[in-house]
Amino acid sequence: MHLGSELFESATGTQMEHIVYKETTQLYTSVATGELAFALGSSATAGPLQRANKLRFLAAAAPQRVAAFPDVPTVSESGGPKGFEVIGWNAIAVPKGLPPSVTEKIKRDIEKGLAEPDVLEKFKSFGYEPFPTTRPQFDQFVANETTRFTDVIRKANVSLD
Predict the structure, then answer these.
(1) pTM for the complete prediction?
(2) What are the tens digits of pLDDT across the range 7-60?
(3) FRET partner for 47 with CA separation of 20 to 30 A, picked from 41, 89, 128, 158?
C-alpha cells in the first residue's frame, strides 16, 4: 500500500515514515502491539485482526462505506480529503493475439463464477466487490489510475527494482 500512503501524504500535505515489511501479517501485528501507530492496508488482510478486536479501522479509503465494515466511516466522513480513494484490483491477463472467441469465453466463465452466491459471499467477507467491465471500460479505468498515480510515483521516486 505504499502508493496509497504516498497518495494520502500528497492529499493531506503530511509526511510519514514508510516502514517496509516482508509480510502483511508482520505489519498488522506491529500495529496491534503498538509498535506502529497505524498502517494503510486492505480489508482482506487486516479484516481478521479488526474482527478479533486486535486493531481498529479508523477509516475506509473508499467513496462509500465498505459493506463488510458498515460502521467504519470513509476517509472523507472522518474529516480527511474529500473523495480520497485507494483501491486494490486484480486483472486476468491472457497472451496477446489470443482469438477473441477464446478471450470472450474466459471472460464469460469468470463473470459466471464471480456471480455464484458462495463466491460473492467470500468476496464480501474480505470486503471485496467484483467489478466486471468491458474492455473499453477497463482500459479507461487503467488510464484513470495511471493519471491519478503518475505524479505520486514521480514525487515519491518509486521505481521497480
Answers:
(1) 0.77
(2) 888 889 888 888 888 888 899 889 989 999 889 888 888 888 888 998 999 999
(3) 158
Grid cell 477497463 in the structure block, residue: 138
d(CA 128, CA 120): 9
Q: With b meaning 16 or more CB within 10 Å and e meaning fewer, what string describes 53-89? A: eebebebbbbeeebebbeebbbbbeeebeeebbbeee
* Residue among 145, 141, 146 nearest 131 (CA): 141
Instruction: Return the half-sphere exposure (C-beta side, CA atoms, 13 A cut-off) of residue 153.
Output: 8
Spatial contact of 44 and 126, defined as CB atoms under 8 Å apart: yes
Q: What pLDDT, on a 0 to 100 scale, did the predictor assign at position 2?
A: 76
Measured in whole angstroms, the distance separating CA 33 from the mean position of its chain's CA atoms is 24
